[in-house]
């Protein structure tokens, strides 16, 4: 019931830019401007604040350690030389399977766990130890859970930066049939909840640096957008969005 724009683009096999997809998302989903699901697209009628199962869809704003900046800049330069930088920017990594090149990158916890079994283990060890109520900033997970995830991400980043860069282009998006897509969409569905406030729903005020993180994420999205792109016959997007709405 909760998707990032990049995840929707990936499900559509990157046929359209993030900007083109974003034009159609408000027809079936709304966003919070703050809080643990901010910038995510949430199916109308579903309120993650009332459903503990939505914890897995919360976001992690990841900032690489400052002492990694030199290595990250070198990695970015190597990608540019190999002609892969633009491709990496237009096909973002949503599962933390590659070295993040941005100052701040937004991930969903469920996606990180899919790409990194160690994160799934962290969540498994947490079990049913959710917050009694949905916290304005931490959401359903105790802060300690996010801290453990970020610690793992920092350790993994250091390991990846020590390895030579694989400059081979990533494989093309999967062309699996609709049946497989339907199964994946079913896995992403969650129990229903009371209707959320709507497209302009806003969580309570956040931490002092939250606005800065939002602006960095919006800037990241804008770099992938194509202002002159439009979809004359957006059947693919509409079909995908209907499945999100009904999940």
Automatic annotation (TrEMBL):
Residues 1-63 form the Transcription factor IIIC subunit 5 HTH domain. Residues 161-247 are annotated as: Disordered. GO terms for cellular component: transcription factor TFIIIC complex. Pfam families: Tau95. InterPro entries: TF_IIIC_su-5_HTH, TF_IIIC_Tfc1/Sfc1. Residues 179-188, 211-231 have a biased composition (Acidic residues). It comes from the Eukaryota. GO terms for molecular function: RNA polymerase III type 1 promoter sequence-specific DNA binding; RNA polymerase III type 2 promoter sequence-specific DNA binding. One of its GO terms (biological process) is transcription initiation at RNA polymerase III promoter. This is Transcription factor IIIC subunit 5 HTH domain-containing protein.
């Amino acid at each position: 019931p909760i998707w990032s724009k990049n995840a929707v683009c990936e499900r559509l096999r990157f046929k359209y830019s993030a900007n083109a997809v974003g034009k159609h998302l408000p027809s079936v989903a709304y966003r919070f401007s703050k809080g643990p699901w901010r910038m995510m697209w949430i199916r109308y009628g579903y309120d993650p604040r009332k459903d503990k199962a939505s914890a897995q869809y919360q976001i992690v704003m990841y900032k690489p350690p400052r002492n990694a900046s030199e290595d990250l800049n070198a990695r970015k330069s190597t990608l540019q030389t190999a002609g892969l930088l633009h491709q990496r920017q237009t096909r973002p990594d949503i599962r933390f399977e590659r070295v993040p090149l941005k100052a701040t990158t937004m991930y969903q916890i469920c996606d990180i766990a899919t790409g990194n079994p160690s994160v799934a283990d962290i969540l498994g060890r947490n079990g049913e130890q959710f917050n009694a109520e949905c916290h304005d900033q931490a959401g359903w997970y105790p802060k300690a859970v996010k801290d453990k995830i970020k610690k793992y991400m920092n350790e993994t980043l250091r390991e990846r930066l020590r390895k030579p860069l694989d400059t081979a282009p990533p494989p093309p998006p999967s062309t699996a049939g609709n049946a497989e897509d339907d199964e994946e969409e079913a896995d992403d569905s969650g129990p229903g909840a009371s209707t959320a406030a709507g497209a302009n729903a806003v969580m309570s005020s956040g931490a002092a640096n939250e606005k800065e993180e939002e602006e960095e994420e919006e800037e990241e999205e804008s770099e992938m957008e194509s202002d002159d792109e439009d979809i004359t016959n957006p059947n693919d997007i509409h079909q995908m969005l209907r499945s999100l709405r009904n999940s």
